[in-house]
Amino acid sequence: MEKIYFITGNKGKFKEAKEILKHLSIKLIQMDIDYPEIQAKDLKEIVLFGIDFCNERLKSPFFLEDSGLFIDKLNSFPGPYSRYIQETIGNDGVLKLLLNENNRSAYFKSTVGLYKNGPHIFEGISRGTISNEIRGNRGFGYDPIFIPEKSPKSFGEMTTIEKNKFSHRGKALEKLAMYLGSGVE
Which residues on adjacent β-strands are paired with residue 107? Predict the structure, then answer.
């Protein structure tokens, strides 16, 4: 059984990945390598930098993921700066930025970077809206304020299995799973 490392300190992300990749003949191992996350406008650029950094330290197949919340009314902010904004103003701060705003459309984008005989990129997008209030206590980050299209629930109100059906990360990880399951090297 092949071992593949998921480079993340986020247990929620690992749980989501483990659920999606469980049907593959791989052993998924979480590894927390504190790699520098460059500030860039493009998630792919951030992920490719992370792949280069981690590949110098880990000679086994691995993947990492970066994602962002892009709010239309805020000109796609916070985008690739989502983690910093989450740590700085949190969900309450984002809701305040959209107070009395009718256009609450947004999307999450995930970029997964696999290093296995070279770098491979897989992306997923989940469109939806920002709620008017925090809803649910599941998931992490912006999950309690993001309601994906065709769902009455926020990500924060969903189980991991429910969330993976709608989520940006779930879509990117499904593409990764298809690639890994295809036997392509």
Answer: 70, 127
pLDDT at 185: 58
Half-sphere exposure of residue 40, counting CA atoms within 13 Å on the CB side? 14
Contact between 1 and 25 under an 8 Å Cβ cutoff? The reply is yes
Count: domains in the chain: 1
CATH number of domain containing 168: 3.90.950.10
pLDDT in tens, 148-175: 999 999 999 999 999 999 999 999 999 9
Task: Give the position of tokens 């593949």.
Answer: 4
Strands (E), 57-176: 62-71, 77-79, 105-115, 119-130, 146-148
Specify whether the CB–CB gap between 74 and 103 falls below 8 A: no
Catalytic: which of 32, 34, 66, 143? 66
Range of the domain at 123: 2-182
**Beta bridge partner(s), residue 4:** 28
What are 119-141's pLDDT values in tens digits? 999 999 999 999 999 999 998 99
Tell whether the torsion through CA atoms of 51, 47, 39 and 15 is positive or negative: negative
Residue 34 annotated among the catalytic residues of the structure: no
